[in-house]
Structures are given as structure tokens and as C-alpha cells.
Amino acid sequence: DENVQNRSREQGHGSFWGVDDVDFQKQRKLEEIVVSVWQENMLHHDHDEDGVFESFFDLTRPRLKLIFRTLDELSTQKAAGVADYRNLRNGLRDAGIEIRDEESFNRLVKAVDMDLDGGIKFNEFETVVQSLKMGHLFRNYNPSMVQQFRCINYNVAVADCRTIYGRDLHKFMYSPRPTNFPQRWISVTSPSDFVMKALAIKYRLHPLALEDALLDNPHIRAKVDSYDNHLLIGFPVLSVSYDKGRKNLHTGEAGGGQYGSIQDRDVMDNKIDFGRHNSKSAYTLLDSDKKHKMQRSMSRGLEDLAIPKLCKSNAFVFVTRPELNTVISMTPASAGDVFKRARRELTVSYSRLRAYDAIYLTYTLLDVIVDSYAPIIAEFEQALALTREKLRKQANKDFLQRGDGVSPSALHDLMQELSSFKRWVVPGQRVLRHLLEDDLVQPDCKIYLRDVQDNLNQIFDDINSLQEGTRALKEEHRQILDLKMTSTMNGLTIVATAFLPGQFLTGVFGMNFEDMPELHWRYGYPLFWGI
């Protein structure tokens, strides 16, 4: 009805307008005042535009409470929990914003002071700080330069999926969530620094968490960090690539690009449920057509053997707490549409995913990432099988003459890639253990998280098995080289033995004795060669 349209609120932490219902017209008025203040250049700021690890982006509740507590103590003329306008101005300066013009400041506080009692409460202080910092961020933004992202608002009955373009970003950040959608998933593809900074202000993401997501250090391992009003989960997104000119073990096509991540494969579209059958390897779970394709690739020529190269990027998931009603995921563009399966599951009719809170959505995102590791295991299993078959042929003399033997560097590279794979998986196990021990996660959801943990443990066991197989191949390769060396030494020994009598006679007849009848005998030379 009209009342719902004019009055709505953003639920829980991350409320851009505080936790109380705010009149929609008053929100618009505050927005207009903030924009006008910035346009009049009456606000002074002192911070790095590109930096995130600083006080300007620190809108965490403990920091704002600390500033407001000081204002409250100085406002002796007001009741406890209320700051007067003069001390509010000083508090804004402490938060990194200074309003120099008196008239602009008065217009601003009148718009923020919702009950018009001449004082500012903590929720009103939060509103004005967020409004001003959001206004500064949008001061010079170019909609055409802003990366689009997806926002899915959902409830038990329906999910509303929208793409937010640059031209719609300002409206999105200043608009509250519809009251009939208790849950929200914001899916961002990096690089999206501007979008993430705006979301950091709107949902008060911690600067340390924002820094991790924006820098996306490839050496960062899986992690889970708990902050005052949100969780940060970082998890590796893995894929494999091949050197140019080398053939893919599955497709037989030339390499040069990434392959193996879930978004680039058709295995998930074929309903192959990796990780659900812990007694089987990833290769045994492939469908028959894909197995035949691999076998044909193996039979076309072992000279096309290529070692998969592991490629890593990071997916970051923010979960608001304690309400657990908002998830912000950030994935690199190089990883493709990682969460396509989760988005499809969320939008189908009577989706179980919509009946739970944000932790269950987080479980689904982690499950999708872990499932994407199984095809990579299959890649390495086939590389190992192809290497083993090629190594067996090294006993064939004709095969060796073609120069197609397995080089020690290939086995070293395979072991190196498997070690890297294991290095990224182990921290992921610790992340899942942390979530299972967190009281924030409901017992019903822990059952599903244990399933993800079991799948990841299976991946870990598969990597160990591959490493053992690679070590066995290295030992077999060393034995083949030893046999080859022994064969060569046997040939040299036979040649040396054949020439040994000649060398003896040469030494004897080469001595400078005066009385050696054979030297002057007519048949001495034929006799030497005869012996």
C-alpha cells in the first residue's frame, strides 16, 4: 500500500538510515542536502582517494560509539545519550569530515535530527556520518566507469534478481531494502573498487576486510575473520591452464587459456555431482562420453602430454551479523561466473535456499567452490595416467629414439603443481572447521557445512594419492634411467673386452727390446691380427 511505499527500512546492521523507520521524504531531503553541501565545496576532507586502510572508511560501530561517547560526555546541557549540535560538529571532524560553513551545517543537522529535540542521538549520528561519506564518494563518480553487479532480494516465496548498472548505483545505495524481502545477496565481480567502497560505507565493512578484498593478493590463503558487524570469508577459486601448443587432456584442443574452473566446464550442466561419492575418484565420476574423449586424446599421441598449471584467484564473502540477512560476494572477472549454480538454485520455484538465512547461502557458495575442485583433480589424474603410459614406453628402443621420453622436469612440474594445490586446500579445511565451531551457525546448517568439509577432505586425500603416484613415477623413471645406463655400460664393457687382447699385444710388441724375432719375421704382422 501507499504507506509501505513511503515508509521502509533497511533491516539490521548495514542500515544506511539507521535501525529505526524513517520517513521516505525525509530521506530524500537529507540526500539533497548532502549533495548540495558537497557541490558548494563546504566540506573539507583529508584522506587518500584510493586508500581503504584508513579512518575515512572505518564506519565500524565501535569506532563511531567511541567518538559519540566523547560527544555525549561534552554535551553537559543534554540528557545522557544525546549530543548537542556544537559537539556534533567536532565529532564529524574527528570522523574525518569538517563542515566549515555554518548555514550548511545547520541545514544538515535539521534534516538529521529526526525528533527535532535539538540534540543528536547515536543512530542519528550514524546516519549523518554515513550520508556525508557516501556523498563524498559519489561527488565525482562517472556512471559509465562503474562495474555492474547483481542484487538478489528474496524471501521464502520468491527471489527478485536485478542487475545494478552504473547509472542506477546512486539510487541503490540511497534506497532501503523492500520490507517484503528479508534476505539480500549482492554479487560483485572485480575489479569494482568504487562499488566495494560504496558497499563498505553502506554496510560498514571493516577497512581490513575491505583491503583484503580489493587488493586480492594471490598469495592470500583461505581465511575467516570475525568483525563487529560482519564476517569475512576468503576462499580460493582454482582452475588449470596449459602452455600454448599443448593439448588439453579432456578436449584435445590446444591450450593457452584457463580450463578447469566450474564456470568453464560443462560437467555441472550435465548434473555430475562431484564430491558426493567419497569412495570414488574424480575421474570415475565423469560421464562415459567424457571418458571416451579422454581415451581418444591419449591414443592420438603421447607426444602431446601437457602438465596442468594451477591458476588461483580469491572469492570473498561478507556476511552481516548478528542478523544474518545480507551476503556480499566478490569474485574476480578471471574466474568467470563462479556462482551461476547458486544463483540458479536461488531462483527456482520452492527453493530450499530461500527458506534459510545468509549462512545457508554462504554454505551454498562454499559448496560451489569446493565442487569446482573435483574436475581439476580429474585433470591431474589424467596427466598422471598419461605420464605413466608414456613412461612405460620408454623401455621401447624405437620410442626412445624419437626423443619422446618423460623428462625429469615434467615430473617435477607435476609434483610442484600438486604441492600448490594442497597448499591452497589445507587453509580451506581450517575455515570450515572454524565455521562449524561458530555459535553463529545454526545446527541445521552445520549438517550441510560438514558435507562441504567431507568433500574438501576427499579432495585433500585425492591430492595425497596423486602425490604418491607422482613419487612412484619419479622412482620408476629413475629405475628406467638406471637400466638404460646399465645397458650402455654393458655395451661399452663388451667393446672394451674385445679390444683388450689387441691392446695387450700392442703393448708387448711396442716395447723397445733389441731381440724380438717376431718383429723381423715375415708372417709376424698377419699373426698379430690373427691373434
Describe this structure as you would to a colleague.
The protein has 531 residues and is α+β, with helices and mostly antiparallel strands. 50% of the residues lie in helices and 13% in strands. The protein has 18 helices and twelve strands. It has helices at residues 2-6, 24-39, 61-74, 85-94, 102-112, 122-137, 169-174, 193-203, 207-215, 288-299, 340-347, 358-371, 373-392, 397-401, 408-437, 443-509, 517-520, 524-530, and strands at residues 7-8, 22-23, 43-45, 97-99, 149-154, 159-164, 183-190, 223-226, 230-241, 258-259, 309-320, 326-332. A hairpin with a 4-residue loop joins strand 5 (149-154) and strand 6 (159-164). Helix 13 runs parallel beside helix 16. The longest helix has 67 residues, at 443-509. The termini are far apart. Mean pLDDT is 76; it is low at 1-26, 40-53, 245-286, 297-303 and 398-403.
Helix content: 40-55%
Based on Cα principal axes, name the global outline.
elongated
The secondary-structure element order is HEEHEHHEHHEEHEHHEEEHEEHHHHHHHH
Number of helices: 18
Roughly what fraction of the amino acids lie in strands? Answer: 5-15%
Describe the structure in brief.
This protein has helices at about 1-5, 25-40, 60-75, 85-95, 100-110, 120-135, 170-175, 195-205, 205-215, 290-300, 340-345, 360-370, 375-390, 395-400, 410-435, 445-510, 515-520, 525-530, and strands at about 5-10, 20-25, 45, 95-100, 150-155, 160-165, 185-190, 225, 230-240, 260, 310-320, 325-330.
